[in-house]
Amino acid sequence: MRAATFRDVSTGVDSTTHPGLTGCARLDAVLDDLVGVAAPSASDDSGGTPPTSEAAPAPDAADSGSDGLAGLALWSASDAELTAMLRRVDQVAARLAGLGAAVVAEAACRDLPGRSAATGGTAWLSGVLRAHPARASRTWRTGRRLAAAAPATAEALRAGGIDVDQASVIAAAVAALPSE
């Protein structure tokens, strides 16, 4: 197997990301760059939970980490590698959704929508993300519910142990429980 290359459209230079790595190892290396935490080992059942006091990544860290994704030669992966890659991508997507939910909760705590004269959290988030209002509403509601009523679920999402749909259902169910 050969390392995949890609052309950097901003510079026009061909480059190789993570030379010598192919298949799952290369995907893991690129995704590790993207999220900043290594994949759990096969013997680690903890899900690779990141520390709760992580420093915030640089604003362009996700962009630079994802550059290597363009050069993945998926055609050369075996069926087992492709299946493993799919699982890893889903785990990273869940972790990023967990981070997004935490950022939304922090934005709500700081009243960023009110301070920017938005009509509400959903409208503010829709404008910030240039997202459809329905998506912004789900994201806003899930982020706030996870922070307020389901912090353990938020941690499981950030660890990649559950996906955002599962976290949303759990957070909604916990929020709907009667107060004691």
Gap between N and C termini:
60 Å
Q: Roughly how many Å is the radius of gyration?
A: 19 Å
Shape: globular
Report the order of strands and helices.
EEHHHHHHHH
Tell me the strand order in the biggest sheet.
Answer: 1-2
> Approximately how much helix is present in the residues?
55-70%
Broad structural category: mainly alpha
How many helices in DSSP terms?
8
User: Could you give a short account of the major beta sheet?
Assistant: 2 strands, antiparallel
Assembly of the depicted chains: single chain
Ranges with pLDDT <50 over ≥5 residues?
1-17, 37-63
Mean pLDDT: 75
According to DSSP, the number of beta strands is 2
Which helices and strands occur, and which strands form pairs?
Blueprint: E1 5-7, E2 14-16, H1 23-35, H2 61-66, H3 79-109, H4 112-115, H5 121-129, H6 133-149, H7 151-159, H8 164-176
Explain what the structure shows.
The chain is mainly α and 180 residues long. The protein has 8 helices and 2 strands; from the N terminus they run E-E-H-H-H-H-H-H-H-H. The chain has a two-stranded antiparallel ribbon. Strand 1 (5-7) and strand 2 form a beta hairpin. It is globular, with a radius of gyration of 19 Å.
